[in-house]
Write a structure and sequence with these properties.
With 94 residues, the protein is mainly alpha-helical. It has helices at 4-26, 29-52, 58-73, 82-89.
Length: 94
Amino acid sequence: MLSVRGAEHERLDPMLDACMAAHQERLDEDRQVEFKSKAKAFVRSYGFLGAILSYRHPAREKLSRFLNFLIPKLPALKKEDLSKDVLEAIDKDS
């Protein structure tokens, strides 16, 4: 017997795979990073606000659940080396 989360995941897998393929085909790497970052921010914010406020918005609830399953399936992209910009900004003479 599948758990509720397992059953949801099993039903969503084909749809998530299609979304992941479209994500990779239609977006360049910068847009993929931007999408994944914004999706994570939405899930965190919605989860936090849902915990402290008593509002329910069915469309946002569905989006949050969908993104919770989709985000782990999205590929991990190369991370920018942020230290490069920091080192260039430091005035080494002073």
